[in-house]
Fold each of these.
Amino acid sequence: MTYGDRRTSRGRARAAVTLACLLALVSAACTGGPGGTPQDGQEESAEGPIVVASGLDVTGSGSVRQQLIEEWNRLHAGSKAQQAKLVELPGGADQQRSQLLGALQSGSARYDVVNLDITWIPEFAEAGLIRPMPVEESGAAADDDLDFIRQVHATTVWKGRSFARPFNTDVGLLYYRPDLLTEADIKADKQPNAHWTWDQLYSSVKTLGLNPVRRDELAGWTTQLKQYEGLTVNAVEAFADAGVELTDSEGKYSSDAGKLKKGLDALLDRVGRGRVQPAALTSDETASLTDFAEGRAVFLRHWPYAYGALGSLMEPRDYAVNRLPGKAVLGGQNLAVTADSPRAENARELITFLTSRESERCLLDAGFAATRASVYGSAAKPCWPRVAAALRPAGDAPTAAATGEGTPKGQGAQARATYIRILGTALTEAVQRPRTPYYGAFTQVLQSHVHALLAAERPDTDAAAEKLDKELRDVFAGK
């Protein structure tokens, strides 16, 4: 059922309920249709709390999302209907998606706001599970929307309508070991506006003389090649570098076997034996970060939150960060109002607060990547004072181990400022994964074929591309 179908059926129910109320002469007591669901125009009278469903906070910041919810509740202490509650869903991204789909389709959970991975927006929008955001043609609200980084805001859009607001974003970054590079006389002091190309990274690995065979040996670099979403991200980045786009903006398949072979060859070259840590084939974010921190890789592809995590794992002089060579994929989550929420107006106000300039600064300080361009500028608004205080021990200087703020011990404000500039630039250049309502099926098919290819002793990209092309055609056609 589409959102339009839901609105039509609700319109009929609303008319019937109104007539019943008039006949009974108790219209003042009539609050909803079947099941007690409030109708449009009556959202303000619905009892709270506003329930927000989200995945777990990976930053180790003391839950900045929960702190933001508590700040909202303090600001609305006089209104029971505007109080909010955060529900954190367990499990990985695939499990959270299944939980949310099941809950919203069955109505078994009363969620008003859902924090959706950016790749889920087309699926939830197409299924009529989330509401389009109001269209602001002009005024303060329209101007405020322009502050979101363009590529990041585009992740909220499906078929010309925005269905969410960007909450926290993500982008691939390159972490490296200056200590090991300096020992090999490799210049590691890259400027904020310059970064390695893949050829330069390969050249550095060759100069280091690394050709690892075992998992405990030092390798040139490592990343996430386990059969899960991290593998999809690495594959899409390699495809993008090779000029291969899998879909158009409407989610229609736009590739073919020849293009896929080009992308698969680029991925194989990138993770070829002798360059990548052998353990990468079974590594997720945690495992690859550990290999890097414990000295089994010189370079690491990872997300922004790793910057804060490394502060408690390594000496500050032993690691640094820059933009990823070539194309980097966007990640992150967007906040959307559920289609059946009886508190939609209050839910939208909460989302506006959670994505405000002050709140986005809190998210950046906690280790997430902020979605607003202004947060990366010199005139950025500070984090809400009480939230900032909750993210660090009272009276103490902030440390990464205590706050997850991404301010590693000893690196200081200058290194932090450099990191923020790098992150802001990387976000403006990032690319999206395919935009499709069938993303769940797509990523499983891609992971299966790519992982088998990487694990093969003699990988055949011609045959792999032919098989992958056939299955992707079916996937993107909804078969």
Amino acid sequence: MRLYLLALNPTDSVTEGFLPAAARLGLDVTVLTDRPDAHRRICPDIEVLECDVRDFRAVITRISTHHAPDAVFTNSDHLQTQAAQAAAYFQLPGKDWRVTLRCKDKAEMRRRLTAAGADSVWSAELTEPVAPGDAPYPCVVKPREGVASEDVVRVDGPEELVAHTKEILSRRPGAVLVVEEYLPGELLTLETLGDGQVRHLLGGFRTELSAPPHFVEERLTFVAAHPEPVVAQVLEQLDALGVGFGACHTEFVVHEGRARIIEVNYRAIGDQCDLLLAGLLRIPLFEHILRTHLGEPLPADLGARQDGAARLEYPCADRAGTLVAAPDAAELDVDGVHLTYRPMRAVGERYELYRTNRDYLGVLRATGTDGATVDRAVTAFLAERHWEIQP
């Protein structure tokens, strides 16, 4: 069976998750990408074809002139609609392209939730640096189709709003920004997996962010199950959007018992959280996701482990400069906690300060059965390591 996997830059989710899962399923894989050299360096044994994957017409043509497809899949935020359109063209299982579009387009998501009566958030689209007269403060400005908290900023007044939109648009000519009311509350995630008929809840994470005005995710703690009333509110909003096929990573806040969606990422959670989740729950998560795109139903019970505790920590750069000292990759067990550290920047390279996950110096994954023990192991590991950035 032939799987076409659409990708931009290589990611851990693909190289460590989906490609090995595809091999275990015995699938023939063709990667379609606009960055073929990068993928060939990392996965020399995988067929990689160059393609303008942001254009669904180019994707369809590339597939039509190659082997017949059995599945078209992507875990990229940017390519969900293209993959859905290609799957629909070849009459293969996949997400509804209208749903992927309304999840990706943050303004359209707000309109859809409002029209369905699921939630109403003040928002407006901006193509020039102006402050809408009815904007509530504080509010948040962000790219309409952005990812990874890039150019997401909290503003407390019209002057700040104008200044930030001007700066963002100067770097993103032609972009459309969304400004929306700031939603207070604890930031959480819900991870789901569905086949269009059955939907499984995989738990979620409690997310700790950098100091305002930016929103860089610095720490995630696994939550096996959010309170049922909270989950019911989130699922109602996902249903209003039409989400239900494959993996979905939903970010939301809870304030005074009310759950409100921040954004819907209609794919598996990234930044190695998906790798942690698969190991923590002890399920073939990546295989399950691929099977849904092959038209196979999910089992009624995934058999997920129920006693797991986990945390991810992202040491972050706090300035631009050259990384001159950093710990090596590590894998160890301490007091029943399994720790996996992976560097995300090379020593000797210079980087700017991005205020996004591109500032991550590395990622530490920790899994066990007791949250307090996991926290102690993470704290000790980080205290014993050293990162140094010089101007």
Amino acid sequence: MRPADAASVHYSPSTWQQPCPAPASADRSILTEALAERILTVGPGRLLVGIDGFTAAGRTSFGNELAAHIAESGRPMLRATLDDYKNPWKDRHLYDRESGEGYYRDAYDYHAARRLLLDPCRNPAADSCTL
């Protein structure tokens, strides 16, 4: 049960939404809670937190758990994913299939992610990132 002052986690509209599984372990819950507390000490303003890692390493689940812990503090939370900015398959299937570097270079539309998500969220006056 959430504390009375907890905020909800707002998720970006996404075709990649999936149910958040239960935390992998008690140790992982301790880690995500400690990391959330550390993030919250950075300051009261808008923060951008990125999670990086290999495909299928658990980035999405970890991000969901971290977002939930931050929201428990009462801080508004927008949870977005780079998967919402994948290039169309007609272009993406041409990527370098021999290396991870090629996949990450060609699979995502980084310009759109920056223009539509990161830049508005970096600007505290931007209405497009208001929760």
